[in-house]
Amino acid sequence: MTSGGPASLRRLAGRTVELIDREYPNGIRLTLQRPPTGRITPRSIYPAFFGCYDWHSAVHSHWQGVRGLRS
Questions:
Q1: Which residues contact 20 (CB under 8 A, 6 or more apart)?
Q2: How many angstroms separate the CA atoms of 43 and 49, rounded?
Q3: Containing H/E element for 7?
Q4: pTM of the prediction?
């Protein structure tokens, strides 16, 4: 992986940190077997990866943070 330099890493790191604790907007798509007993939130479904529009993007953001730290 080629780096865009320290400025690019700082910009990406800042964006990743913003996403860690932001819960909405979010695109939850679920198929439920029965009615929920409580409120369904991104944080309750994916406690470690709720900080993006969808779970997949959140995982990529966490990986981006790890790669930035390793660089």
A1: 51, 61
A2: 8
A3: helix 6-20
A4: 0.51
Tokens of 14: 């800042």
Q: How far apart are CA 22 and CA 14, in angstroms?
A: 13
**Contact at 8 Å (CB) between 71 and 3?**
yes
Closest C-alpha among 22, 4, 13, 16 to residue 59: 16
Q: Tell me: the pLDDT tens digits for 15-68?
A: 777 777 777 777 777 778 888 888 888 888 877 777 777 777 777 777 877 877
C-alpha torsion angle, residues 51, 55, 61, 67 (rounded to 10): 130
